[in-house]
Amino acid sequence: MNAWRILIAAVACLGPALQYGLMIHDESWATGPQKSVEFFSYFTIISNILAAVALTAPLLAPASGLARWADATSTRIAIAVYLAITAVIYHTLLAHLWDLPPWRQVSSHIQHTITPALFLIDWLWRGGQGEARWSAAVSAVRIPAVYGAWTLIHGALSGFYPYPFLNVAKRGYPAVLVTMAVMFIGFLVVALAFTALHRARARLAPMQADPISA
């Protein structure tokens, strides 16, 4: 179990670290900060960093408040939702749009395929600490909502939009806002579905553990 947890934590940390290094290795002191802001403007990066923190904290500081947050059921469900939607959107809408150099392909594959798959397996296998409350599913959409607001504000100031479906300069605010509303509903639906799945898993676990009566 420990080897598995170390492995997936290492993979989750590798994706964003490699991506950041590739983004800034040719940048100057003047352009580096701008690229750093752009780096943190991708939801892929945010979801993968959350996964990296959630997987690493219990290993490095198991008694810390951060580790308790990381192992909480609500946290693990929320991150599973973010990674699942990140993977689905990338593979259905974005993968064919970008012709990436080899190392960027490696980074992209880690963040859009490998880390989401490993985290979802780990979540389904280990569950989390505490009850899966329906209210937590609603709370899970707060980060996507804040991210959407940040994208609009940062885009208006800088002209940079991380994804074509959020590009106000090309699509206009009405179309982008409709897209955001649909995505918000999608996040909520997936969060509710994952919460239901976790609750079902929690009910089945004691039944599997109990011996069959004669």
Structure at a glance:
The protein has 10 helices and no strands.
Topology:
Elements: H1 2-24, H2 32-39, H3 43-60, H4 65-71, H5 73-94, H6 102-126, H7 134-139, H8 142-158, H9 168-171, H10 173-209
Helix pairs in contact: 1-2, 1-3, 1-6, 3-4, 3-5, 3-6, 5-6, 5-10
Describe the protein's architecture and organization.
The chain has 214 residues and is mainly alpha-helical. The protein has one domain. The protein contains ten helices and no strands. Helix 5 runs antiparallel to helix 6. The two termini are 33 Å apart. Mean pLDDT is 90; it is low at 208-214.
The secondary-structure class comes to mainly alpha
Radius of gyration: 19 Å
Low-confidence stretches: 208-214
**Strand residue percentage:** under 5%
Helical proportion, percent range: over 70%
Q: What is the number of E strands?
A: 0
User: How would you spell out the order of helices and strands?
Assistant: HHHHHHHHHH
Please state the average pLDDT score. Answer: 90
The biggest beta sheet reads: none
Q: What's the domain count?
A: 1
Bulk shape = globular
Q: How many alpha or pi helices? A: 10
Distance between the termini: 33 Å
